């Protein structure tokens, strides 16, 4: 009897936990939409709650304030973004393969999560008043690790000599613009929104530009043929 009661209690607890996780995930999705549309200052918990199908009081049960929710959103976005930087830490692959995978992953994030990218970009453009310290704390260690990898490739003659930090900045700028400026790009191209073909062509071009500048002539030529 006690075992059955304990089992029912555990099942009820698991269901409650699952429901909480689902509700939090829904709130986060809706918060990303609202923050992407209106920015942090122009957004309200009431608006986010309404979009999530909750009352404001119910939302406050999950997140104590707008800033707390905003920080959770930015944490999630940055963690997903930083996962892509880990690609460069794979010592089992050559520079060309890793750079190709990194560019593809960054563009995939812009294609699949444009609103998340815009939320992050808006925070950065405004001077990172809410999230600046967390950005520095999270990004710097991974960036230093990637820079060390680039410097090793340069010392081994696998990559042209350049400033690794500015290489990363350039790749970020080229790939993230397909999320942050997708509306402008779509208008210029005559689309309502960027198409899959646009992202495929962007990946080919960006990869070709990066590899042709960074890799020794023979390796770069082989990799450029794969881009065509």
Automatic annotation (TrEMBL):
DNA-binding region (UniProt annotation): 44-63
Keyword DNA-binding: yes
Pfam families in the cross-refs: TetR_C_3 (PF08362), TetR_N (PF00440)
Span list, region Disordered: 1-20
TM segment ranges: none
This protein's UniProt keywords: DNA-binding
Keyword DNA-binding: yes
One example of a Gene Ontology biological process annotation: negative regulation of DNA-templated transcription
Ranges of residues in domain HTH tetR-type: 21-81
PROSITE patterns: HTH_TETR_2 (PS50977)
GO molecular function, one term: DNA binding
PANTHER family tied to this protein: HTH-TYPE TRANSCRIPTIONAL REPRESSOR SCO4008, TRANSCRIPTIONAL REPRESSOR
Record's protein name: TetR family transcriptional regulator C-terminal domain-containing protein
Organism (species): Undibacterium rugosum
Lineage: Bacteria, Pseudomonadati, Pseudomonadota, Betaproteobacteria, Burkholderiales
